[in-house]
Amino acid sequence: MDDGWLRVARLLSNIGPHTFALTRRQKVFCGVAGVGLVAAVSASAIGVEYSPNSVAASLGGPFTVSADSSVAELRNDRRHWIGGGGGFANPWPSFKDVPFAVPFAKLMLFGDKKPKVPIAADRVRAQHINWDRIRKDANYDKMHLTWLSHAAFLLSVPGANILLDPCLSDRCSPLSWAGPSRIVNPPCKLEELDVDVCVISHNHYDHLDLDVMKKLVEKKKDILFFVPMGNKKLLVDAGISNVIECDWWDSYKLHKPASQDSPVESNVQITCTPSQHFSSRTLWDKNKTLWSSWHIQSTVNQDDNEDDDNTNILAEANLNEPISSTSATSNPNTITKKFFFGGDTGYRTVLQGDSEDDVATCPAFREIHSHFGDTDLAALPIGAYAPRHLLSNVHCSPRDAIDIHHDLHAKKSVAMHWGTFVLSREDVMEPPRLLRQEMEKRGMREEEFVVVDIGETVTV
Ligand SMILES: [Zn+2]
Fold it and tell me: Which residue intervals define the domain Metallo-beta-lactamase in the entry (predicted)?
Protein backbone atom coordinates (compact mmCIF):
# COMPACT_ATOMS: atom_id res chain seq x y z
CA MET A 1 0.00 0.00 0.00
CA ASP A 2 1.59 3.30 -0.97
CA ASP A 3 1.42 6.59 0.88
CA GLY A 4 -1.31 7.97 -1.37
CA TRP A 5 -3.67 5.15 -0.52
CA LEU A 6 -2.79 5.33 3.16
CA ARG A 7 -3.61 9.03 3.11
CA VAL A 8 -7.01 8.28 1.57
CA ALA A 9 -7.66 5.61 4.19
CA ARG A 10 -6.60 7.96 6.98
CA LEU A 11 -8.82 10.66 5.54
CA LEU A 12 -11.77 8.31 5.54
CA SER A 13 -11.16 7.30 9.12
CA ASN A 14 -10.62 10.91 10.19
CA ILE A 15 -13.93 12.14 8.81
CA GLY A 16 -15.60 10.51 11.81
CA PRO A 17 -14.47 12.62 14.76
CA HIS A 18 -14.95 15.90 12.95
CA THR A 19 -18.14 15.31 11.02
CA PHE A 20 -20.08 12.29 12.12
CA ALA A 21 -18.66 11.61 15.60
CA LEU A 22 -18.19 7.91 14.85
CA THR A 23 -17.12 5.46 17.51
CA ARG A 24 -13.53 4.21 17.53
CA ARG A 25 -14.68 0.84 16.14
CA GLN A 26 -16.60 2.57 13.34
CA LYS A 27 -13.54 4.66 12.49
CA VAL A 28 -11.36 1.57 12.26
CA PHE A 29 -13.95 -0.09 10.04
CA CYS A 30 -14.12 2.99 7.86
CA GLY A 31 -10.35 3.08 7.49
CA VAL A 32 -10.05 -0.63 6.65
CA ALA A 33 -12.93 -0.41 4.16
CA GLY A 34 -11.27 2.59 2.54
CA VAL A 35 -7.96 0.78 2.18
CA GLY A 36 -9.72 -2.28 0.75
CA LEU A 37 -11.72 -0.21 -1.69
CA VAL A 38 -8.77 1.71 -3.09
CA ALA A 39 -6.64 -1.45 -3.26
CA ALA A 40 -9.36 -3.20 -5.24
CA VAL A 41 -9.77 -0.23 -7.58
CA SER A 42 -6.00 -0.02 -7.99
CA ALA A 43 -5.67 -3.75 -8.78
CA SER A 44 -8.50 -3.72 -11.28
CA ALA A 45 -7.05 -0.62 -12.93
CA ILE A 46 -3.95 -2.51 -13.99
CA GLY A 47 -5.89 -5.64 -14.83
CA VAL A 48 -3.93 -8.10 -12.69
CA GLU A 49 -4.37 -9.74 -9.37
CA TYR A 50 -2.36 -7.86 -6.76
CA SER A 51 -1.37 -9.91 -3.74
CA PRO A 52 -0.74 -7.75 -0.69
CA ASN A 53 2.22 -8.63 1.45
CA SER A 54 0.04 -10.14 4.12
CA VAL A 55 -0.27 -13.30 1.98
CA ALA A 56 3.24 -14.20 3.09
CA ALA A 57 2.08 -15.25 6.52
CA SER A 58 -0.28 -17.87 5.12
CA LEU A 59 2.22 -19.62 2.87
CA GLY A 60 3.20 -23.19 3.54
CA GLY A 61 6.68 -24.65 3.60
CA PRO A 62 9.59 -24.62 6.01
CA PHE A 63 10.23 -20.88 5.83
CA THR A 64 8.73 -18.16 7.95
CA VAL A 65 8.08 -15.44 5.40
CA SER A 66 7.66 -11.78 6.27
CA ALA A 67 7.40 -8.65 4.16
CA ASP A 68 10.27 -6.20 4.50
CA SER A 69 9.45 -2.52 4.77
CA SER A 70 12.91 -1.04 4.32
CA VAL A 71 12.31 -0.53 0.60
CA ALA A 72 8.84 0.98 1.11
CA GLU A 73 9.73 4.38 -0.33
CA LEU A 74 10.84 2.80 -3.64
CA ARG A 75 7.56 0.89 -3.90
CA ASN A 76 5.74 4.22 -4.20
CA ASP A 77 7.12 4.69 -7.70
CA ARG A 78 4.36 3.36 -9.96
CA ARG A 79 5.56 4.82 -13.26
CA HIS A 80 5.76 1.28 -14.69
CA TRP A 81 2.04 0.70 -14.13
CA ILE A 82 -0.32 1.44 -17.01
CA GLY A 83 -3.85 2.16 -15.90
CA GLY A 84 -7.03 0.75 -17.35
CA GLY A 85 -5.86 -2.87 -17.61
CA GLY A 86 -2.98 -1.89 -19.88
CA GLY A 87 -0.40 -3.85 -17.91
CA PHE A 88 3.13 -2.54 -17.49
CA ALA A 89 5.78 -0.42 -19.22
CA ASN A 90 9.48 0.44 -19.04
CA PRO A 91 9.44 3.94 -17.55
CA TRP A 92 12.85 5.19 -18.73
CA PRO A 93 14.11 7.11 -21.81
CA SER A 94 16.51 4.18 -22.35
CA PHE A 95 13.56 2.16 -23.65
CA LYS A 96 11.91 2.84 -26.98
CA ASP A 97 9.19 0.53 -28.19
CA VAL A 98 10.39 -1.24 -31.33
CA PRO A 99 7.71 -3.14 -33.28
CA PHE A 100 10.08 -6.05 -33.73
CA ALA A 101 7.82 -9.12 -33.85
CA VAL A 102 7.03 -9.18 -37.56
CA PRO A 103 10.41 -7.97 -38.94
CA PHE A 104 12.26 -10.25 -36.53
CA ALA A 105 10.17 -13.30 -37.43
CA LYS A 106 10.76 -12.58 -41.14
CA LEU A 107 14.46 -12.24 -40.53
CA MET A 108 14.73 -15.47 -38.53
CA LEU A 109 12.67 -17.46 -41.03
CA PHE A 110 13.75 -16.05 -44.36
CA GLY A 111 16.76 -13.77 -43.84
CA ASP A 112 20.22 -14.68 -45.03
CA LYS A 113 23.25 -15.04 -42.76
CA LYS A 114 21.44 -17.29 -40.32
CA PRO A 115 23.66 -18.16 -37.37
CA LYS A 116 25.14 -21.59 -37.88
CA VAL A 117 24.96 -23.99 -34.98
CA PRO A 118 28.55 -25.12 -34.40
CA ILE A 119 29.41 -28.80 -34.18
CA ALA A 120 29.04 -30.21 -30.67
CA ALA A 121 32.75 -29.90 -29.87
CA ASP A 122 32.68 -26.16 -30.57
CA ARG A 123 29.63 -25.27 -28.50
CA VAL A 124 29.56 -24.09 -24.90
CA ARG A 125 31.27 -26.71 -22.74
CA ALA A 126 29.36 -28.70 -20.15
CA GLN A 127 30.53 -30.49 -17.03
CA HIS A 128 28.94 -32.55 -14.28
CA ILE A 129 27.87 -30.56 -11.27
CA ASN A 130 30.23 -30.98 -8.34
CA TRP A 131 27.50 -31.65 -5.77
CA ASP A 132 30.05 -32.54 -3.06
CA ARG A 133 31.58 -29.10 -3.25
CA ILE A 134 28.20 -27.38 -3.04
CA ARG A 135 26.87 -29.53 -0.22
CA LYS A 136 30.10 -29.49 1.77
CA ASP A 137 30.22 -25.72 1.84
CA ALA A 138 26.50 -25.08 2.11
CA ASN A 139 26.64 -24.92 5.88
CA TYR A 140 29.20 -22.17 5.87
CA ASP A 141 29.19 -18.58 4.76
CA LYS A 142 29.67 -19.21 1.05
CA MET A 143 27.30 -18.55 -1.80
CA HIS A 144 27.47 -21.02 -4.72
CA LEU A 145 26.06 -20.27 -8.14
CA THR A 146 25.77 -23.15 -10.64
CA TRP A 147 24.88 -22.47 -14.28
CA LEU A 148 22.24 -24.91 -15.54
CA SER A 149 22.19 -23.39 -19.10
CA HIS A 150 20.62 -20.26 -20.63
CA ALA A 151 19.26 -18.17 -17.72
CA ALA A 152 18.80 -21.12 -15.34
CA PHE A 153 20.90 -21.18 -12.18
CA LEU A 154 20.96 -22.92 -8.85
CA LEU A 155 21.96 -20.51 -6.09
CA SER A 156 22.98 -22.39 -2.94
CA VAL A 157 23.17 -20.29 0.21
CA PRO A 158 23.30 -21.51 3.80
CA GLY A 159 20.11 -23.45 4.46
CA ALA A 160 18.43 -22.78 1.10
CA ASN A 161 18.69 -23.86 -2.52
CA ILE A 162 17.21 -21.24 -4.83
CA LEU A 163 16.44 -22.09 -8.44
CA LEU A 164 16.33 -19.22 -10.95
CA ASP A 165 14.46 -19.24 -14.30
CA PRO A 166 14.69 -23.03 -14.70
CA CYS A 167 14.00 -23.46 -18.40
CA LEU A 168 15.34 -27.00 -18.73
CA SER A 169 13.00 -28.47 -21.35
CA ASP A 170 14.13 -29.39 -24.86
CA ARG A 171 12.38 -26.39 -26.39
CA CYS A 172 11.53 -22.89 -25.18
CA SER A 173 8.19 -22.70 -26.90
CA PRO A 174 4.46 -23.16 -26.29
CA LEU A 175 4.68 -26.15 -28.65
CA SER A 176 6.52 -29.40 -27.95
CA TRP A 177 7.27 -29.92 -31.66
CA ALA A 178 8.28 -26.45 -32.83
CA GLY A 179 10.18 -23.42 -31.61
CA PRO A 180 13.80 -22.96 -30.52
CA SER A 181 15.34 -26.23 -29.39
CA ARG A 182 18.30 -26.46 -27.07
CA ILE A 183 21.72 -27.16 -28.53
CA VAL A 184 23.28 -28.23 -25.22
CA ASN A 185 21.81 -30.41 -22.50
CA PRO A 186 21.29 -29.31 -18.91
CA PRO A 187 24.07 -30.57 -16.63
CA CYS A 188 21.81 -32.70 -14.44
CA LYS A 189 18.49 -34.47 -14.27
CA LEU A 190 15.59 -32.60 -12.73
CA GLU A 191 15.42 -35.21 -9.96
CA GLU A 192 18.91 -34.25 -8.82
CA LEU A 193 17.80 -30.73 -7.92
CA ASP A 194 16.81 -30.22 -4.29
CA VAL A 195 14.94 -26.91 -4.43
CA ASP A 196 13.54 -24.79 -1.60
CA VAL A 197 12.72 -21.60 -3.51
CA CYS A 198 12.15 -20.91 -7.21
CA VAL A 199 12.45 -17.37 -8.59
CA ILE A 200 11.12 -16.38 -12.02
CA SER A 201 12.02 -13.18 -13.90
CA HIS A 202 9.15 -13.06 -16.43
CA ASN A 203 6.82 -15.20 -18.49
CA HIS A 204 8.80 -15.78 -21.72
CA TYR A 205 9.17 -19.47 -22.51
CA ASP A 206 12.96 -19.44 -22.20
CA HIS A 207 12.58 -18.29 -18.57
CA LEU A 208 9.24 -19.59 -17.28
CA ASP A 209 9.11 -23.32 -18.05
CA LEU A 210 5.80 -24.46 -16.61
CA ASP A 211 6.46 -28.17 -17.27
CA VAL A 212 9.62 -28.07 -15.21
CA MET A 213 7.95 -26.10 -12.43
CA LYS A 214 5.08 -28.60 -12.24
CA LYS A 215 7.54 -31.51 -12.05
CA LEU A 216 9.46 -29.78 -9.28
CA VAL A 217 6.26 -29.38 -7.26
CA GLU A 218 5.25 -33.01 -7.87
CA LYS A 219 8.52 -33.97 -6.22
CA LYS A 220 8.40 -31.41 -3.40
CA LYS A 221 5.09 -29.68 -2.68
CA ASP A 222 6.26 -26.82 -0.48
CA ILE A 223 8.71 -25.12 -2.87
CA LEU A 224 8.15 -21.38 -2.52
CA PHE A 225 7.82 -19.52 -5.84
CA PHE A 226 8.51 -15.82 -6.42
CA VAL A 227 7.11 -14.23 -9.58
CA PRO A 228 6.62 -10.64 -10.81
CA MET A 229 3.08 -9.21 -10.70
CA GLY A 230 0.40 -10.84 -12.80
CA ASN A 231 2.16 -14.21 -13.13
CA LYS A 232 0.70 -15.94 -10.09
CA LYS A 233 -2.48 -17.00 -11.91
CA LEU A 234 -0.50 -18.96 -14.51
CA LEU A 235 1.15 -20.97 -11.74
CA VAL A 236 -2.01 -21.42 -9.66
CA ASP A 237 -3.91 -22.66 -12.72
CA ALA A 238 -1.14 -25.23 -13.18
CA GLY A 239 -1.62 -26.46 -9.60
CA ILE A 240 1.24 -24.52 -8.00
CA SER A 241 -0.10 -22.68 -4.97
CA ASN A 242 2.88 -21.63 -2.85
CA VAL A 243 3.46 -18.41 -4.78
CA ILE A 244 4.43 -14.86 -3.84
CA GLU A 245 3.70 -12.29 -6.51
CA CYS A 246 5.82 -9.13 -6.38
CA ASP A 247 5.85 -5.64 -7.74
CA TRP A 248 9.22 -3.96 -8.28
CA TRP A 249 10.82 -3.34 -4.86
CA ASP A 250 8.59 -5.75 -2.96
CA SER A 251 10.93 -7.49 -0.56
CA TYR A 252 10.59 -10.57 1.63
CA LYS A 253 12.62 -12.15 4.40
CA LEU A 254 12.75 -15.90 4.64
CA HIS A 255 13.78 -17.60 7.83
CA LYS A 256 14.20 -21.30 8.43
CA PRO A 257 15.48 -22.64 11.74
CA ALA A 258 18.16 -25.29 11.88
CA SER A 259 16.86 -28.85 11.92
CA GLN A 260 18.17 -32.38 11.86
CA ASP A 261 17.98 -32.45 8.06
CA SER A 262 19.55 -29.04 7.63
CA PRO A 263 21.89 -28.17 10.51
CA VAL A 264 22.02 -24.55 9.54
CA GLU A 265 19.60 -21.71 10.02
CA SER A 266 18.62 -19.86 6.86
CA ASN A 267 18.19 -16.08 6.59
CA VAL A 268 17.49 -14.93 3.07
CA GLN A 269 16.10 -11.68 1.73
CA ILE A 270 14.54 -11.69 -1.74
CA THR A 271 13.69 -8.41 -3.47
CA CYS A 272 11.98 -7.96 -6.81
CA THR A 273 13.93 -5.30 -8.72
CA PRO A 274 13.36 -3.55 -12.09
CA SER A 275 14.66 -4.59 -15.50
CA GLN A 276 14.15 -3.24 -19.03
CA HIS A 277 12.21 -5.90 -20.87
CA PHE A 278 8.68 -6.99 -21.77
CA SER A 279 6.37 -9.94 -21.32
CA SER A 280 4.17 -12.13 -23.49
CA ARG A 281 3.05 -15.72 -23.33
CA THR A 282 0.58 -15.53 -26.22
CA LEU A 283 -0.08 -13.18 -29.11
CA TRP A 284 -2.64 -11.28 -27.04
CA ASP A 285 -1.01 -10.61 -23.68
CA LYS A 286 1.98 -8.37 -24.39
CA ASN A 287 3.08 -6.56 -21.20
CA LYS A 288 0.01 -7.63 -19.22
CA THR A 289 2.30 -9.17 -16.60
CA LEU A 290 5.42 -7.66 -15.06
CA TRP A 291 9.08 -8.55 -15.70
CA SER A 292 11.88 -8.10 -13.19
CA SER A 293 15.37 -8.75 -12.01
CA TRP A 294 15.96 -10.03 -8.45
CA HIS A 295 18.28 -9.13 -5.58
CA ILE A 296 18.92 -11.96 -3.13
CA GLN A 297 20.99 -11.70 0.01
CA SER A 298 21.90 -14.27 2.61
CA THR A 299 23.15 -13.56 6.10
CA VAL A 300 25.15 -15.91 8.32
CA ASN A 301 26.85 -15.68 11.67
CA GLN A 302 30.56 -15.91 11.08
CA ASP A 303 31.55 -17.05 14.58
CA ASP A 304 29.18 -19.97 14.62
CA ASN A 305 30.46 -21.18 11.26
CA GLU A 306 33.78 -21.88 12.88
CA ASP A 307 32.15 -24.48 15.11
CA ASP A 308 32.91 -28.01 14.11
CA ASP A 309 29.43 -29.29 14.79
CA ASN A 310 27.78 -27.00 12.21
CA THR A 311 25.10 -25.98 14.68
CA ASN A 312 25.48 -22.36 13.74
CA ILE A 313 22.79 -19.95 14.68
CA LEU A 314 22.37 -17.07 12.32
CA ALA A 315 21.94 -13.52 13.37
CA GLU A 316 18.23 -13.03 13.72
CA ALA A 317 18.83 -9.47 14.86
CA ASN A 318 20.47 -8.62 11.57
CA LEU A 319 17.33 -9.48 9.64
CA ASN A 320 15.43 -6.78 11.41
CA GLU A 321 17.83 -4.04 10.50
CA PRO A 322 17.37 -1.87 7.42
CA ILE A 323 19.41 -3.07 4.48
CA SER A 324 22.88 -1.62 4.81
CA SER A 325 24.63 0.02 1.91
CA THR A 326 27.58 -2.35 2.04
CA SER A 327 28.19 -6.02 2.67
CA ALA A 328 29.45 -5.25 6.16
CA THR A 329 26.59 -5.06 8.65
CA SER A 330 26.53 -3.30 11.99
CA ASN A 331 26.99 -6.67 13.67
CA PRO A 332 30.64 -7.58 13.08
CA ASN A 333 29.83 -11.27 13.59
CA THR A 334 27.56 -11.52 10.58
CA ILE A 335 28.39 -11.84 6.91
CA THR A 336 25.89 -10.82 4.24
CA LYS A 337 26.40 -12.01 0.68
CA LYS A 338 24.52 -10.21 -2.07
CA PHE A 339 23.51 -11.75 -5.39
CA PHE A 340 21.87 -10.04 -8.35
CA PHE A 341 19.98 -11.94 -11.04
CA GLY A 342 19.51 -9.91 -14.23
CA GLY A 343 16.79 -12.17 -15.70
CA ASP A 344 16.24 -10.73 -19.16
CA THR A 345 17.04 -7.09 -19.75
CA GLY A 346 18.13 -4.43 -22.17
CA TYR A 347 20.23 -1.40 -21.23
CA ARG A 348 19.71 1.11 -24.05
CA THR A 349 17.78 1.37 -27.32
CA VAL A 350 19.96 1.66 -30.41
CA LEU A 351 17.84 2.27 -33.49
CA GLN A 352 19.22 2.23 -37.04
CA GLY A 353 21.53 5.22 -37.40
CA ASP A 354 21.96 5.65 -33.62
CA SER A 355 25.35 5.56 -31.96
CA GLU A 356 25.69 3.22 -28.95
CA ASP A 357 27.45 6.03 -27.07
CA ASP A 358 24.81 8.70 -27.61
CA VAL A 359 21.64 7.02 -26.36
CA ALA A 360 20.24 6.97 -22.83
CA THR A 361 21.09 4.02 -20.56
CA CYS A 362 18.78 2.30 -18.09
CA PRO A 363 19.10 3.84 -14.61
CA ALA A 364 17.58 0.82 -12.80
CA PHE A 365 20.90 -0.85 -12.00
CA ARG A 366 22.41 2.32 -10.57
CA GLU A 367 19.31 2.64 -8.41
CA ILE A 368 19.65 -0.98 -7.26
CA HIS A 369 23.25 -0.25 -6.27
CA SER A 370 22.33 2.95 -4.47
CA HIS A 371 19.89 0.97 -2.36
CA PHE A 372 21.69 -2.30 -1.70
CA GLY A 373 25.35 -1.34 -2.05
CA ASP A 374 27.96 -3.39 -3.87
CA THR A 375 26.93 -6.76 -5.28
CA ASP A 376 29.10 -9.77 -4.43
CA LEU A 377 27.95 -11.82 -7.41
CA ALA A 378 25.78 -11.03 -10.43
CA ALA A 379 24.36 -13.21 -13.21
CA LEU A 380 24.04 -11.04 -16.31
CA PRO A 381 22.76 -11.75 -19.84
CA ILE A 382 25.25 -11.39 -22.71
CA GLY A 383 23.42 -12.97 -25.67
CA ALA A 384 20.44 -12.66 -28.07
CA TYR A 385 21.25 -9.05 -29.07
CA ALA A 386 21.39 -9.12 -32.90
CA PRO A 387 20.15 -7.40 -34.91
CA ARG A 388 20.78 -4.58 -32.56
CA HIS A 389 18.12 -2.22 -33.98
CA LEU A 390 15.41 -4.81 -33.23
CA LEU A 391 16.62 -6.30 -29.94
CA SER A 392 18.79 -3.75 -28.10
CA ASN A 393 15.83 -2.36 -26.14
CA VAL A 394 15.15 -5.72 -24.47
CA HIS A 395 18.41 -7.71 -24.60
CA CYS A 396 21.96 -6.86 -23.52
CA SER A 397 25.02 -6.99 -25.69
CA PRO A 398 28.23 -8.04 -23.90
CA ARG A 399 29.11 -4.35 -23.69
CA ASP A 400 25.74 -3.58 -22.03
CA ALA A 401 26.31 -6.41 -19.55
CA ILE A 402 29.69 -4.96 -18.58
CA ASP A 403 28.08 -1.54 -18.07
CA ILE A 404 25.47 -3.14 -15.79
CA HIS A 405 28.27 -4.99 -13.95
CA HIS A 406 29.84 -1.59 -13.23
CA ASP A 407 26.50 0.09 -12.37
CA LEU A 408 25.92 -2.61 -9.75
CA HIS A 409 29.53 -2.35 -8.51
CA ALA A 410 29.55 -6.12 -8.83
CA LYS A 411 32.67 -7.79 -7.47
CA LYS A 412 32.14 -10.66 -9.88
CA SER A 413 29.67 -11.41 -12.67
CA VAL A 414 28.75 -14.62 -14.45
CA ALA A 415 27.66 -14.63 -18.10
CA MET A 416 24.28 -16.13 -19.01
CA HIS A 417 21.54 -16.08 -21.67
CA TRP A 418 23.79 -17.39 -24.43
CA GLY A 419 24.93 -20.66 -26.02
CA THR A 420 21.81 -22.70 -25.23
CA PHE A 421 19.08 -21.70 -27.70
CA VAL A 422 19.46 -19.86 -31.00
CA LEU A 423 17.17 -16.89 -30.36
CA SER A 424 18.77 -14.19 -32.51
CA ARG A 425 21.18 -13.49 -35.36
CA GLU A 426 24.62 -13.32 -33.76
CA ASP A 427 26.89 -16.33 -34.04
CA VAL A 428 26.24 -18.75 -31.21
CA MET A 429 29.77 -18.40 -29.80
CA GLU A 430 30.13 -14.66 -30.42
CA PRO A 431 28.89 -13.29 -27.03
CA PRO A 432 31.83 -14.57 -24.92
CA ARG A 433 34.29 -13.39 -27.60
CA LEU A 434 32.88 -9.86 -27.56
CA LEU A 435 32.76 -9.93 -23.77
CA ARG A 436 36.48 -10.71 -23.56
CA GLN A 437 37.32 -8.03 -26.17
CA GLU A 438 35.34 -5.40 -24.29
CA MET A 439 36.89 -6.41 -20.96
CA GLU A 440 40.39 -6.13 -22.43
CA LYS A 441 39.55 -2.72 -23.83
CA ARG A 442 38.51 -1.56 -20.37
CA GLY A 443 41.44 -3.19 -18.58
CA MET A 444 39.24 -5.57 -16.56
CA ARG A 445 40.66 -8.66 -14.93
CA GLU A 446 39.36 -11.94 -16.39
CA GLU A 447 37.91 -13.09 -13.06
CA GLU A 448 35.73 -9.97 -12.78
CA PHE A 449 33.27 -11.25 -15.38
CA VAL A 450 33.52 -14.97 -16.01
CA VAL A 451 32.19 -17.20 -18.75
CA VAL A 452 31.57 -20.57 -17.13
CA ASP A 453 30.80 -24.05 -18.43
CA ILE A 454 27.28 -25.37 -18.09
CA GLY A 455 27.29 -27.20 -14.76
CA GLU A 456 30.17 -25.15 -13.39
CA THR A 457 29.85 -23.58 -9.95
CA VAL A 458 31.13 -20.13 -8.95
CA THR A 459 31.67 -19.60 -5.24
CA VAL A 460 31.93 -16.26 -3.43
ZN1 LIG B 1 12.42 -12.46 -22.28
Answer: 161-298, 337-418
